[in-house]
Amino acid sequence: MKNIHLMFKFLWYSVLVCIWGVSCTSSGTYKKTQMDIYMQYYDFIIDSLSENPSYVCARTARQMAVTTDSVAYYHYLVLLAKAYMFKSEMDSARLSMNRAEVFCDGAVPSSLINDLYADIYNMRGNVCARQGLADSSVICFQKAFDYRLQGSNRDVLPDISINLADAFVRTGHYDKGAMWYRKSLSYSDSLKIPEEKRFPAYYGLAQVYMELRDFTSCDYYYELAARHYDKMLPFEKHIYLNNRGNSYYFRADYPKALEIFRRSLVLARSYPDMIFEEHLTEMNLGETFLLMNQVDSAAYYLNLCGDFFRSIENQTALYYLDTQLIELALKQNDLPLARKRMSEAVQPDYVEPNMQHIRNRYLQHYFEEAGDFRQAYYYQMENQRIDDSTRNERIKMRTAEIDLKYSQDTTLMKQKIFIQQKENEVLALNQTLYIWISVCICVLFLVVFIIVYNKKRHYLLQMRTRTMITALRMENIRNRISPHFIFNILNREMGSYTDEQAENMRGLVKLMRRNLELTGQFCVTIAEELDFVNTFINLERKALGDNFILSIFIDEAINPGQEILPSMMIQIPVENALKHALKDKEGMKRLWIDIRRIEIGICIKIRDNGGGYKVNSVNHGTGTGMKVIFQTVQLLNANNKKHLDISIANVQLDEGEIGCEFTVILPQGYDYNLKKMV
């Protein structure tokens, strides 16, 4: 189970590394910028913009205070202007936009600057729309759209298209309005925007068909928008309710219009900062009550909204309001007040035909009450002319709208064919990518299999090694028990020997006892090892003769009783030197044991003058001793980062002789513990 877990863990990390490598290769290392922080903040705060613009103003000002990137700073400033607009503080909104535009004018052109320009002109268009400057809003929204096409953030193209469509509808260009609403839906398709986010285009198209008096199509699109009413923001709900109420107003279904306008007013009053929406709804309610001859209610609502529209100087709204107040005075039978209001009424540069028609109807009523039937007839004929013109205009608009619709459908079909071709190309590329990914996964599985297989082999080898070591330990224990009986017998027999014989026998017994003790110890101190070596050499001195000299040097920086080394590490080379090099040598026989402190640890050298190591010499043993040393070093080195080094070399001695030198390097901090392995 452990090996399976390691295999899956390795595979998972390998896949992650591959994905990371591909992503880094394709897009480079990603670093979060202040523009990224702004976009996150915008997504977080946008829902609060219409509900609580005061909160947005305060929060955005704090964000601006800690922003050092200029482009991000002025994006925050445009967002602040939008919050001011929702608070109906138009002067503050214009001031913020002017500051941002001055920065853009002086900046080096780039996609980020184009995005900022787009946001500025989009905001200018919204402010102009709120002030009734329909033609100016069209110009601003068109510039916003053009700059957005040259920018990097095209996800908002559907929203700008809707703003431009709204502006065209307000100027009476319903064909162009419908075209831009459909463009918004087309962009939404291209950008994969979900259906629940497309309702502004639906209720925009509904308004177009309302103006063209195609109420069947109008209701169809309003129903599409109504499916997502719960997901609309408050100001979007107000737009939907206000426009739908107008659709019943134009059908002269005033009770139904009144019901929807009341819902709109309740919504607007639920949010303290929706002042514009609240007073616009009050004006719609005032006219509806006026048409239903409920004069007191009409006067109440018209009086509520008058001061607000005068404060923001919305010419379109003031023209509409003055028209209602003229009719209100007539229905109150106050002819002088009606005359006064006519003389004080505002005259915008552009008046929508619908509003001109309403004003003419109420002026006709006034002149009828004043007894000036010539003027009354004049306004009646003016309305007749407007009706004929409007009817002809609607026919042309519907024809143009149908033509644009089908031309757009043809364009969409071409786009879909093009998109399908590109999707097929992408599919082919994806298939190639999938093949390479499959090959990589197969290679990974093969690598994992090899690694697991090697781990399994290593594990089995470890198990065999442990079994062998356990068996050797048991055999060692048994071998250590039986010699004790022999030692007891030898001690008893030595009582009948001469002093010299007894001394030699005691040395032999000591050597044998010490040898048994060393076989039970993996490591010994240098002092213990040298004591054993001296005992062995003393027993061999008689065979070596009087011309044998032993020289032992221990560095003063070394404490032999504390420094440790593997047992027999000195004994075996010494025994080999006596047996194979010095025993049969003629003349002086010398053996040096040199132990010194070096930079990396301790260096031990065992050197003789026996003529050096000869590979083809007949005077050599089985090599068992050296095999033990090499296997011991191999086991220990597997458990250490620093390695214990051994070397054997022939050396030139001072007397001109050749000798064999066995060198051991014991690293500082070397671990002689084999528990980690066995």
Q: What distinguishing features does this structure have?
A:
678 residues; alpha+beta; 5-stranded mixed beta sheet; two-stranded antiparallel ribbon; disordered N terminus
Short description:
This protein is α+β, with helices and mostly antiparallel strands and 678 residues long. It contains 25 helices and 7 strands. The protein has helices at 2-27, 34-45, 48-51, 53-65, 70-86, 90-106, 111-130, 134-149, 157-170, 174-190, 199-211, 215-226, 234-250, 254-269, 275-291, 295-312, 315-331, 335-344, 353-370, 373-481, 483-493, 499-519, 526-544, 571-582, 624-637; strands at residues 523-525, 548-554, 564-566, 589-598, 601-608, 645-652, 658-667.
What does this structure look like?
With 678 residues, this protein is an alpha+beta fold. It has helices spanning 2-27, 34-45, 48-51, 53-65, 70-86, 90-106, 111-130, 134-149, 157-170, 174-190, 199-211, 215-226, 234-250, 254-269, 275-291, 295-312, 315-331, 335-344, 353-370, 373-481, 483-493, 499-519, 526-544, 571-582, 624-637, and strands at 523-525, 548-554, 564-566, 589-598, 601-608, 645-652, 658-667. The chain has a five-stranded mixed β-sheet, with helices on one face. Strand 6 (645-652) and strand 7 (658-667) form a beta hairpin. Helix 5 (70-86) packs parallel to helix 7, helix 8 (134-149) packs antiparallel against helix 9 (157-170) and helix 15 packs parallel to helix 17 (315-331). It starts with a helix and ends in an 11-residue tail after the last strand. The model is unreliable at 1-30 (pLDDT under 50).
